[in-house]
Specification:
With 328 residues, this protein is an alpha+beta fold. The protein has helices at residues 2-8, 60-69, 77-87, 100-103, 206-214, 219-249, 253-270, 279-293, 316-319, and strands spanning 20-26, 36-42, 48-49, 54-56, 92-94, 104-105, 110-115, 136-141, 147-153, 162-165, 182-185.
């Protein structure tokens, strides 16, 4: 059963680094220049440490070709990516370790990476910049070489605008699910406000609203809750039943004989003896009781304590061996 549960759990995705998503990207702040930035979003309900992850502008095909070249080697994916960082430092960036206070992202929180081409300025400064008027690609990789998220920013994005996920759209939690909608924000209205480091506030929860439409009276949720409880009880009953059968099979033949004979012995002991007791037995019992009850004379009940000089344990004569007396 444990193996079955493990197999059924294989398709599931644990909350963690795979839930870090690209949320909003700015290529250029204004027409006179200004560095771009990328806002990432931790969509899980647990803290996520993003150190040792890789951010790159290299395409999927480029990264995959590097992995294919090193397929015969016994290098781990993070070693291959680290070597790529050294070979092409302007195209791939590893979020450094040692800044745990800032790289440990809280649940449902954000962090912003500056695309200013100056990684010496701090942990959240990438070595590359974006180019205005052309498609800009950016991707996030985990330490094991898995692609966590990527996005292509269209060339039509103007300075001062951002390419972001719609506030009313689906939360970015699954890579390439086809349901996440992107839009361009110009910051001119509340709906298109540029919220660097602060995800758009939503007044409603889409999941709750969808569930309310599908189950307005709560019948399905009640049925689901009771099914879970009774399924757990049935599973416990089956487990206890199987455990009892397994334990009974492991009993030896001698133990089985004792177990089968024990009720018969107890039943025989519980049955009182039948028949009359002969007179001789009654006379012996009465005589024994008489001797026991009249074994002593009447005494005064006063104890007399006489002091002695030496204890019996310390007498010299008691400690010496007695020699046999030889009679002549």
């Amino acid at each position: 059963m444990i193996l079955l549960c493990a197999i059924l759990a294989l398709p599931t995705f644990a909350q963690g680094r795979k839930n870090v998503r690209i949320n909003e990207v700015m290529v250029q702040q204004d027409s006179t220049g200004g560095n771009g930035w990328v806002e990432f979003y931790n969509s899980s309900y647990s803290s996520t440490a993003v150190e040792k992850m890789f951010i790159t502008t290299l395409s999927r095909d480029d990264i995959q070709s590097v992995f294919d070249k090193n397929k015969g080697n016994k290098k781990k994916p993070n070693q291959i990516l680290l070597e790529l960082c050294e070979a092409q430092p302007m195209d791939i960036y590893e979020i450094p370790r040692g800044d745990e206070r800032h790289t440990k992202i809280a649940p449902r929180a954000h962090f912003v990476m500056e695309a200013d081409g100056d990684p010496k300025s701090g942990t959240f400064h990438m070595p590359f910049t974006f180019t205005e008027g052309k498609d800009n690609y950016i991707a996030l990789y985990d330490v094991n070489g898995d692609l966590v998220d990527d996005v292509t920013i269209p060339a039509s994005l103007k300075p001062g605008e951002t390419y972001a996920i719609k506030a009313e759209g689906r939360l970015p939690s699954i890579l390439n699910d086809g349901k996440t909608e992107w839009t361009v924000k110009d910051g001119k209205t509340i709906e298109t406000a540029i919220t660097k480091g602060n995800y758009n506030i939503r007044e409603v929860n889409e999941n709750i609203e969808a569930f309310h439409i599908k189950d307005p009276h709560g019948y399905w949720i009640a049925l689901l809750a009771m099914s879970v409880v009774f399924s757990a009880l049935a599973l416990l009953y089956i487990l206890f039943k199987l455990f009892g059968m397994f334990a009974s099979r492991n009993l030896s033949s001698e133990d089985k004989t004792k177990a089968e004979a024990a009720p018969a012995v107890a039943q025989a002991a519980a049955v009182p003896a039948t028949g009359d007791t002969d007179g001789e037995t009654m006379a012996a019992i009465c005589f024994a009781l008489y001797q026991h009850l009249n074994a002593h004379d009447n005494e005064s009940g006063v104890l007399t304590l006489a002091p002695r000089d030496n204890s019996t344990w310390a007498t010299k004569t008691g400690l010496m061996r007695e020699l046999p007396v030889i009679k002549k």
